[in-house]
Write a structure and sequence with these properties.
- The protein is of the alpha+beta class.
- Helix content is 32%, strand content 22%.
- It contains four helices and four strands.
- A four-stranded mixed beta sheet has the order 1-4-3-2.
- A hairpin with a 2-residue loop joins strand 2 and strand 3.
- The protein is globular.
Amino acid sequence: MSYSQATAPIANPAPQSAPLFPMGQIVATPAVADHFAAHGVSPLEYLGRHVRGDWGDVPPEDAAANQASIERGTRILSSYKVASETVWVITEADRSSTTLLFPSEY
């Protein structure tokens, strides 16, 4: 087995301990806020993962795009399962805000 066959590119490197970018004002849609409250789940865990580079359940190409977005100043998207529902966390390109929302609300 050659070296190139034994390794795969890392699209989502290990999350960092320090925040990688500013999140700006943090907001959630009413439906997502209700979902978190109904299930006794705090959004802080997911916001912490997002800002430290744990993009959750995004495909490798989106994880790679997020890594590039940190340097380029473009939108950053994470996706997490929260009580069996997918919740997106999106930080705007200008870093003015981060929104928690369901994909259907995009």
